[in-house]
């Protein structure tokens, strides 16, 4: 847990208010003018106390701004530790990620993401904790800490998800004990009511094969050339924390991420963002605009396009945290030399070509607008 301790004013911070107070008291009881009842004396007295009061107000404002800057530095430091920046490349994949907090002035929210290289492939997690801001930071830290360890230890994605589920349950029990000391020494029946996490666990094999476990999270988008398609539309599992995981848990194959193609993972704050007229943000259109502008698409440019369009759509005031993670496959096809001439790129495969290479499609249908959560 991260705590910011309040310190008693020391040094110049405590001397200045005392000095202003001494000036006011000394004038009131030591100056003959303050004892007179004439109009001029009253005006001078009012001016003196006005100046003293203005000085005290300016001092308090300066102290509050100083504490606010300190709190923001602590929040940025916490974010760099809990939600640490991703490297630009992971095992042949170009990577970029960013998040936008719904709390004005905050730099951390309730969204989480991570990508690690393991002997089982590149494993990626994207999640959304109920709530936002510093209140969700503890849950984010518990889940990411468990994922960073389990991603290397567990040979199957199902094992990783079970570890995350146990970590969330343990965190909620500990939080319930801290919030309700009367429960000390016994397990609370319901650790934290209505606390849950939507989560997508993705694994990218050496050959680009994709498998996923989805717990109530939006499916990512696959960007191939200028085509933007959802990776899946099957019914996901319930979010973590609401119901136990099924006994026959297994990752679902989702085709292949071919060289030059990109995956865009995001939290529901992106597609649920509304403008002043109540219209949802068209995330596929923003991704298509980024793909038309640049081929092959650069993950950082995708982030810039999406967040610029999102802020313009919401008038700079999003109502929920938003996180976006972009992965582009820069690996060469087996037996195919990498292009050497600038601007040389493979022809983007169509949906039918991808289906031939990856097998029968598991998911069909276009994404539909979801009601605001």
From TrEMBL:
<keyword id="KW-0472">Membrane</keyword>
<keyword id="KW-1133">Transmembrane helix</keyword>
<dbReference type="InterPro" id="IPR052016">
    <property type="entry name" value="Bact_Sigma-Reg"/>
</dbReference>
<protein>
    <submittedName>
        <fullName>Serine/threonine-protein phosphatase</fullName>
    </submittedName>
</protein>
<feature type="domain" description="PPM-type phosphatase">
    <location>
        <begin position="90"/>
        <end position="329"/>
    </location>
</feature>
<dbReference type="InterPro" id="IPR036457">
    <property type="entry name" value="PPM-type-like_dom_sf"/>
</dbReference>
<keyword id="KW-0812">Transmembrane</keyword>
<dbReference type="Pfam" id="PF07228">
    <property type="entry name" value="SpoIIE"/>
</dbReference>
<feature type="region of interest" description="Disordered">
    <location>
        <begin position="330"/>
        <end position="373"/>
    </location>
</feature>
<feature type="transmembrane region" description="Helical">
    <location>
        <begin position="43"/>
        <end position="64"/>
    </location>
</feature>
<dbReference type="InterPro" id="IPR001932">
    <property type="entry name" value="PPM-type_phosphatase-like_dom"/>
</dbReference>
<keyword id="KW-0378">Hydrolase</keyword>
């Amino acid at each position: 847990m991260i705590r910011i301790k309040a310190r008693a004013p020391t040094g110049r911070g405590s001397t200045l208010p005392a000095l202003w107070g001494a000036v006011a008291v000394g004038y009131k009881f030591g100056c003959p003018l303050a004892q007179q009842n004439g109009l001029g004396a009253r005006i001078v007295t009012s001016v003196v106390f006005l100046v003293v009061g203005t000085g005290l107000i300016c001092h308090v404002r300066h102290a509050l701004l100083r504490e606010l800057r300190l709190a923001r530095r602590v929040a940025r430091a916490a974010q760099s530790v809990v939600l640490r920046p991703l490297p630009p490349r992971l095992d042949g994949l170009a990577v970029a990620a960013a998040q936008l907090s719904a709390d004005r002035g905050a730099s951390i929210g309730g969204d989480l993401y991570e990508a690690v290289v393991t002997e089982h492939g590149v494993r990626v997690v994207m999640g959304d904790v109920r709530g936002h801001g510093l209140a969700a930071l503890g849950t984010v830290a518990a889940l990411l800490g468990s994922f960073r360890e389990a991603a290397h230890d567990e040979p199957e994605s199902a094992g990783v998800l079970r570890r995350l589920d146990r970590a969330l349950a343990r965190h909620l029990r500990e939080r319930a004990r801290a919030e309700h000391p009367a429960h000390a020494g016994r397990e609370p029946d319901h650790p934290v009511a209505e606390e849950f996490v939507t989560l997508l666990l993705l694994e990218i094999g050496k050959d680009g094969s994709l498998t996923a476990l989805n717990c109530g999270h939006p499916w990512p988008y696959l960007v191939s050339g200028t085509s933007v398609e959802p990776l899946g539309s099957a019914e996901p599992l319930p979010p973590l924390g609401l119901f136990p995981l099924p006994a026959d848990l297994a990752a679902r194959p989702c085709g292949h991420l071919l060289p030059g193609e990109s995956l865009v993972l995001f939290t529901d704050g992106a597609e649920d963002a509304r403008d002043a007229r109540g219209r949802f943000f068209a995330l596929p259109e923003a991704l298509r605009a980024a793909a038309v502008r640049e081929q092959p698409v650069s993950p950082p440019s995708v982030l810039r396009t999406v967040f610029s369009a999102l802020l313009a759509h919401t008038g700079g005031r999003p109502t929920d945290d938003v996180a976006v993670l972009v992965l582009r496959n820069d690996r060469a096809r087996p037996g195919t030399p990498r292009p050497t001439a600038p601007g040389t790129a493979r022809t983007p495969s169509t949906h039918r070509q991808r289906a031939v290479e990856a097998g029968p499609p598991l998911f069909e249908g276009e994404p539909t607008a979801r009601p605001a959560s």
